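Here comes an entry:

___
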Amino acid sequence: MHVLAHDPIGATVLDLDLDRLDEVTTDRLKDLLATHGMLAFPDQELDDARFTTALRRFGALTFTTGETPVPGHPDLNVVSNVGRTRPPRSSFHVDTSYVRRPPAYTALRAVQVPDQGGATMFTDQQRALRTLPDELRRLVEGRTITHVVTGLELDDDAESHAEHPIVRPHPRSGERSLYLTTPPRCAAVSGLEAAEAVALIDALFTHSTRPDNLHRHAWSPGDVVIWDNARVLHAGDHTAVVGDRVMHRGMVAADGYDRAA
């Protein structure tokens, strides 16, 4: 296994078959995810069944209610532009952050890659905290954001909001980073009036998603990408896409951060 780090975030892992993960290798990949935020695995020959099996090595899988499942594979959902009259819209966000214990990892398998465009972008949220202006750093310390669901129809008993620290230690590494999501899903900031909260969230989001804090993954056939939801924000770039873009997504529950015994 060879790891090629990207700047400022992410890495590509070469000479590793996700179809043949053992416990030691999986644990090392979890450490690499905590360090690099996202890992790209090129030239994987996985169907949905083997993709699901590989993800289960990282922990129990979880599914977001309201998403479109992959036929025959209820742990996976479809991310696609096929049949849409308008391109999908994606803002930088954390997956399912409106629950008390958000998913540890998200993974995408490239089913169909467009002829042009369709990259997935990632931010370095540890670097975002390190480079935060002193005034903002003082303002966020000790505060929380209330994360809420948008755009999905949930069951009556499903979690729809959760409060998380803005400065959050990583569940595996302990390293601190900013933890927020797309502004429409940030409903409140503890100790601030509504207008102050909106201004703070906008400032944090703008700072986190600056071009110098991003890595773009341009998809190739056979790619699998896994990212750490406590370490990065992500977004799909759906501008100027030519052709069909079809991804199958799986998510690992929060217990996926646990270290091997």
Observations:
- The radius of gyration is 18 Å.
- The chain has two domains: 2-121+220-257, 125-208.
- The mean pLDDT is 93.
- The CA atoms of residues 37 and 231 lie 5 Å apart.
